[in-house]
Design a protein that fits this description.
Blueprint (H helix, E strand, L loop, with lengths): L7 H7 L1 H9 L18 H6 L2 E6 L1 H18 L3 E5 H4 L10 E7 L5 H12 L3 E6 L5 H5 L2 E4 L12 H21 L4 H22 L3 H9 L5 E6 L3 H16 L2 E6 L16 E5 L7 H16 L3 E7 L11 E5 L8 H18 L18
Parallel strand pairs: 1-2, 1-3, 3-4, 4-5, 6-7, 6-8, 8-9, 9-10
Helix pairs in contact: 2-8, 2-9, 4-8, 4-11, 8-9, 9-13, 10-13, 11-13
Bound molecules: 5-amino-5-deoxy-1-O-phosphono-D-mannitol.
């Protein structure tokens, strides 16, 4: 069943290129445009949407945080992302023109289900992004975009996350395509990049041995911090969540811009800090800012583990450990940047003698509050 791997998680990490390709399958037409009839909204309904609200929990919430950057950039529609458990107990302002997206691997998460019920009661359309056919969340939604990751057995979500990202990008690009924005050319180019991305994920997987080695060398550490900017910030949150779940270590993700507002006080000699570096192409301001953040923490003794695009030479002098990822458009970078963090957490868990597929105290699907 584990296909020769020691753990389901390893198998599922390895399956990611295929999962990503399967989620794209049939959704990009021969002309390079998106066909997403599954969204079940007419072009005029899609043009009417004046707000997108994403609700989810855990790793699916991190996918939602990344989706916000994509949706707002490509569609210019305001997008909010909220933990389902918070959303459902507020009085969120929704209406008939709000599009609510509920992201869930299992389709059975109680808080996400309650959040979508609440949204539908307010007259909003709910689109589920889900991996489990016929589960409760898609059944109760107006439409569903299935992620085709295949069954995910390990409690820690990996391939489901990458495919949730793909589904979110598809929705964002489709909304942009239908509504027509000044980003038309960029949207076509990104659709092309997305159709190649599974090969890039594969390339990352082929270079993971040094990451595993590094993880083993950190097995006795108490804390690991994760920093990122822009879409790298939710990636940092996801890296930290994986480490908590699997290695039972104290791990926190921060927006690098927040360092001086508190977290930098945590930096002490030899503290491992993972930094997700945005592409130096595209938004170079972001890149330069994070390079100075790396300098700042390294000057205080942090052991920097830098995840940066191939060809990014500016980070080299400040990286104690450098993990290379392929160049991608800025917004797609999480698809390649998350993979080393999954491998890192999985290897640390193994080195610490933890049960990888079934971490203590956790359930695969949280069907209670
Ligand atoms: O099935 P769901 O996607 O709704 O689950 C949401 C979270 O419970 C889930 O992502 C959880 O955070 C994972 N264990 C993370 O690895």
């Amino acid at each position: 069943e584990k296909g020769g791997y020691d753990y389901f998680m390893l198998k599922e990490i390895a399956e990611q290129p295929k999962a990503v390709a399967d989620t794209l399958l049939g959704r990009i037409d021969a002309g390079g445009s998106l066909t997403l009839d599954e969204v079940r909204m007419s072009a005029s309904e899609l043009r009417e949407v004046d707000k997108v609200v994403i609700v989810a929990c855990g790793t699916a919430f991190h996918a939602g945080l990344i989706a916000k950057y994509a949706i707002e950039h490509w569609t210019r529609i305001p997008c909010e992302v909220e933990l389902a458990s918070e959303f459902r107990y507020r009085d969120p302002i929704l209406g008939a023109r709000s599009l609510v997206i509920a992201i869930s691997q299992s389709g059975e998460t109680m808080d996400t289900l309650m959040a979508l019920r609440h949204a539908r009661e307010q007259g909003s359309k709910v689109l589920a992004i889900c991996n489990t056919n016929g589960s409760t969340i898609p059944r109760e939604s107006d439409a569903v975009l299935y992620t085709h990751a295949g069954p995910e057995v390990a409690v820690a979500s990996t391939k489901a996350f990458l495919t949730q990202l793909v589904a979110c990008y598809l929705v964002a690009l489709y909304l942009g395509q239908v509504r027509g924005t000044k980003w038309g050319d960029e949207i076509s180019a990104v659709i092309r990049d997305l159709s190649q991305i599974s090969g890039e994920v594969e390339r990352v997987l082929e270079t993971m041995e040094p990451v595993r080695e590094l993880a083993r060398s950190l097995a006795d550490k108490k804390t690991v911090l994760f920093l990122g900017r822009h879409v790298g910030y939710p990636v940092a949150l996801e890296g930290a969540l994986k480490l908590k779940e699997l290695a039972y270590m104290h791990a926190e993700g921060f927006a690098a811009g927040e360092l001086k507002h508190g977290p930098i006080a945590l930096i002490e000699p030899d503290l491992p800090v993972v930094v997700v570096v945005p592409s130096p192409r595209g938004r170079s301001v972001l890149h330069d800012k994070i390079v100075s953040n790396i300098q700042e923490i390294r000057a205080r003794g942090a052991r920097t583990i830098v995840i940066a695009e191939e060809g990014d030479e500016a980070v080299v002098p400040y990286a104690d450990h450098l993990v290379r990822i392929p160049a991608t458009p800025t917004l797609l970078q999480p698809l390649v940047a998350t993979v080393p963090l999954q491998v890192f957490a999985c290897e640390l868990a193994t080195a610490r003698g933890n049960e990888v597929d079934q971490p203590r105290n956790l359930a695969k699907s949280v069907t209670v509050e």
